[in-house]
Design a protein that fits this description.
This protein is 6% helix and 33% strand. The protein is mainly β and 790 residues long. The protein folds into 6 domains: 138 residues, no CATH class; 61 residues, no CATH class; 37 residues, Laminin (Ribbon), CATH 2.10.25; 138 residues, Spermadhesin, CUB domain (Jelly Rolls, Sandwich), CATH 2.60.120.290; 62 residues, no CATH class; 160 residues, Kelch-type beta propeller (Neuraminidase). The strands form 23 sheets. Strands 27, 28, 30, 32, 33, 36 and 38 form a 7-stranded mixed β-sheet that branches. A 5-stranded mixed β-sheet has the order 29-31-37-34-35, with no helix packed on it. Strands 47-48-51-52 form a 4-stranded antiparallel β-sheet, with no helix packed on it. Strand 3 and strand 4 form a beta hairpin. The longest helix has 6 residues. The radius of gyration is 61 Å and the shape is elongated. One of its GO terms (molecular function) is calcium ion binding. This is Multiple epidermal growth factor-like domains protein 8. It is a single-pass type I membrane protein. Its main location: membrane. InterPro entries: Beta-prop_ATRN-MKLN-like (IPR056737), CUB_dom (IPR000859), EGF (IPR000742), EGF-like_Ca-bd_dom (IPR001881), EGF-type_Asp/Asn_hydroxyl_site (IPR000152), EGF_Ca-bd_CS (IPR018097), Growth_fac_rcpt_cys_sf (IPR009030), Kelch-typ_b-propeller (IPR015915).
Length: 790
């Protein structure tokens, strides 16, 4: 009896604990007698694990009756005595049991953890939820919760001092319909004129628990009840919208939308920007200040909704079906056909596409097939898009590129347009053999049926970047006329000789109706050139040329390739009496004291003035014969025993240093161009002037030494020694022994015969190292050796 709790009692193995009387008794006693209360008795508890704990009690009464426990009302749990000063220790102080509380307020607000079931309107302890509401009779419940954000304290006394938050539902607490209908058994009483004005009260789908007209203090005809969904509010009518001033409000159930008025664009709330009043169906608005529809091509009308009936390829300002101007490569009354130079179907959405012929389509044939787009190729091209050069031509014709006629030993071209020739592809015989090394192009344009094209100008041009021909080793010869294949010496005239020293584009013209180009192919060398046939007969006289007397000529006062040379520039300042125009030679003859090309410059007697005495481009047609032989100075002229004079080199004011050979027949007074025979391995002398030459009949050769020349930037004084074989028509360098003369120009070279010995004497001249020379040098033609005489 001295033990007052179960665990203390059972610490003594002779004792047992009676749960009925809460006393410790001897295990030797009869349980039915000592552990009894009225008619009820219990077995003694003899195992410590079976001792009752305060936490096992779920009601205040059971907790207090245990004698060793106290009840924490706010937490609704039982704990050992002495742990909290606010705990309930007497039965009279126990809060009312949950099942005796009749409403939500008393259920949740009174002390004790109780739960309120909205569905059954019952208050219960949550510890019995699973046993009493096991079939979902209470899907929602309310219980007491601690204030949000309140820190949890470890002090039970402090925790008990915290007041719970009211959780009971109240329809009257909802201020608007949407919140009201979210709560079960709540509905909205409202004024039909303004559904926003209303109160939330209890009710169901059928009716409200209270009279709505009384709750709202309005007449019954205006009062309405809503339980399933909130009534629609016409914000537009009540002026509760925020639409833009240029927008109209459109009421929708539960909301509203803002739409800009006709003639304005925007979201209807923040902005409504002015635009065209009509909707531009097939077009766009021009903007202020007109704000008119600008129609897409093929449409008309104030709102661009009318089709012009032009297959969307033209405007129709005069009315539907009256097309102004067909666009997009179309033509026809209703722009229903593809125009020349295009293909496709003008009546479909794809329309017409321009021909893709790389700039080589034949315009006379329509450039390409109007249905398939296959090109009608010209300019020596072929392929669907003229992307490949014809046979015997090479190059890249794409993007307007040029095809070049290959090197052939006898190539004849009769094309009347623009065409290219080049030496980078060599002719190969179909039967095999070596490639052609001798290139000869004869350009003889013909019209239909082989009729020769007369009065035509053939322009020939080489760009420096397209030429790799080393001067002194090789050259490109261009002649006006046919090659000398018949022995008639007047058939051709040398127009130009090209090699790499020519760094600016060169254009030369043939006026005989034929042009001949000769070139010997060298290793890793070659060129490409373009020629163009201009004639009034075939309408190819291009600007700035004009047609006059059925001839393609330059405008009055101009001449030369591309008509870029001015004849008698500034009229020779004749009004100032500084010069007069020599129309025959196309030059100015200046008065004393004046100089320059237009006689505009005052000169003194001590001034040195270089004046062009003769330019074959400037002379008039009356002096056409002077174009046959290129004017020059500083050349050499030697005679043979047959009455012929041989001229070599010299300086041309229009072409610079020359290296051509011409023969003059004194019997019939005619000039003949000498064609130099050479192989790709042979070399040729540089063009030169003020050199020395001599004819050696015993060797059938012409010897030349030294002279002045010019490279890309500087003038050169030469010391090379060459011989030209009259029979072989070839140049070769003279083998020399011993010390030779220095670089010389302006010297003389004379043949001296002494018995059977022949020597050449070189006298005087100008030397860069020594100035004017007073020395005499002798070259022995027998031993090929030099010796200094003086």
């Amino acid at each position: 009896s001295e033990y007052n709790n179960c665990l203390h009692c059972l610490a003594d193995s002779l004792c047992g604990w009676c749960e009925t009387t809460n006393e410790c008794v001897s295990r030797q006693e009869n349980e039915t007698m000592v552990c009894r209360r009225g008619e009820n008795w219990r077995y003694l508890t003899v195992n410590p694990s079976q001792c009752s704990n305060c936490s096992n009690y779920i009601s205040c009464e059971q907790c207090i009756e245990a004698g060793i426990c106290e009840w924490w009302a706010e937490d609704a749990r039982c704990s050992r005595k002495g742990r909290s000063v606010t705990a309930v220790t007497e039965l009279e102080a126990c809060p009312a049991p949950c099942y005796l509380r009749e409403n939500c307020s008393s259920c949740l607000n009174d002390r004790g953890r109780c739960v309120w079931c909205e569905a059954t309107s019952q208050c219960f302890s949550f510890s019995v939820y699973t046993s009493e509401y096991q079939f979902g009779l209470c899907r929602e419940w309310l219980d007491q919760t601690m204030p949000i954000g309140m820190p949890q304290s470890q002090d039970p006394a402090q925790q008990h001092s915290i007041q719970p938050i009211q959780q009971c539902k109240s329809c009257a607490s909802h201020q608007n319909c949407s919140h009201c209908l979210r709560s079960l058994s709540c509905g909205w009483c409202y004024d039909v004129d303004n559904p926003i004005e209303g109160v939330c009260i209890q009710g169901d789908f059928n009716r409200s628990a209270f009279d709505c007209s009384t709750a709202l203090n309005i007449t019954e005809d205006r009062a309405r009840w809503s339980y399933a969904q909130c009534p629609d509010v016409d914000e537009c009518e009540l002026g509760l919208h925020d639409c833009h001033a240029q927008a109209e409000c459109i009421n929708t159930h539960g909301s509203y939308t803002c739409r800009c008025r006709k003639g304005f664009l925007g979201d209807g709330i923040r902005n409504c920007i002015q635009t065209c009043y009509e909707t531009c169906v097939h077009g766009y608005c021009s903007g202020g200040p007109e704000y008119k529809c600008q129609c897409d091509l093929g449409w008309t009308g104030i709102d661009c909704s009318q089709n012009c009936a032009c297959n969307n390829h033209s405007t129709c300002s005069q009315g539907v079906g009256k097309c102004d101007k067909c666009m997009n490569w179309t033509e026809g009354l209703h722009c229903e056909r593809c125009s020349p130079g295009s293909f496709g179907n003008a009546t479909t959405q794809l329309g017409c596409q321009p021909c893709d012929c790389n700039g080589h389509g034949n315009e006379a044939l329509g450039i390409c097939d109007s249905q398939t787009g296959e090109c009608y190729c010209q300019d020596n091209t072929e392929g669907l898009k003229c992307e490949v050069c014809n046979r015997n031509f090479y190059g890249d014709p794409k993007a307007g590129g040029q095809c070049y006629y290959q090197c052939e030993p006898r190539g004849v071209l009769t094309h009347i347009g623009t065409q290219g020739i080049g030496s980078h592809q060599l002719h190969k015989s179909a039967r095999g053999g070596t490639e052609a090394r001798e290139c000869l192009w004869i350009i003889s344009p013909y019209v239909k049926h082989g009729v020769e094209l007369k009065n035509a100008i053939i322009q020939f041009e080489i760009e420096p970047q397209d030429m790799n021909v080393t001067c002194g080793q090789n050259a490109i010869y261009v002649y006006d006329g046919l090659p000398d294949l018949t022995g008639v010496t007047l058939q051709k005239q040398l127009l130009a000789v090209f090699c790499n020293e020519n760094k600016s584009p060169w254009i030369t013209e043939a006026r005989s109706g034929h042009l001949t180009v000769h070139y010997r192919q060298g290793h890793d060398q070659g060129f490409k050139a373009i020629y163009n046939v201009m004639s009034c007969n075939i309408n190819t006289c291009k600007r700035p040329y004009i047609c006059s007397d059925n001839k393609c000529v330059c405008p009055k006062g101009f001449t030369g390739p591309r008509c870029s040379l001015k004849i008698c520039p500034s009229d020779c300042n004749v009004e100032q009496k500084q010069g007069v125009c020599d129309a025959g030679y196309g030059r100015c003859i200046c008065a004393p004291g004046f100089g320059d090309a237009d006689c505009s410059r005052q000169i003194k007697p001590s001034n040195i003035v270089f004046t062009e005495l003769f330019n074959s481009y400037l002379i008039s047609d009356n002096f056409e014969h002077l174009r046959k032989t290129l004017p020059r100075f500083g050349h050499t002229l030697v005679a043979d025993r047959r009455g012929s004079l041989w001229m070599f080199g010299g300086y041309s004011l229009s072409h610079g240093p020359l290296n051509d050979i011409r023969q003059f027949d004194t019997k019939n007074n005619t000039w003949m161009q000498v064609t130099v025979d050479s192989s790709p391995e042979d070399r040729m002398p540089l063009g030169r002037y003020f050199h020395a030459a001599e004819m050696i009949m015993s060797k059938q050769a012409i010897y030349i030494y030294g002279g002045l020349s010019r490279n890309q930037t500087d003038h050169l004084v030469l010391d090379d020694f060459w011989q030209f074989g009259l029979q072989s028509q070839r140049w070769s360098i003279v083998n020399q022994k011993g010390s030779k003369p220095p670089q010389l120009a302006g010297h003389s070279m004379t043949l001296i015969k002494e018995a059977d010995k022949e020597v050449l004497l070189v006298i005087g001249g100008f030397s860069v190292s020594a100035g004017l020379s007073t020395h005499i040098w002798m070259f022995d033609l027998g031993s090929n050796s030099w010796s200094k005489v003086l």
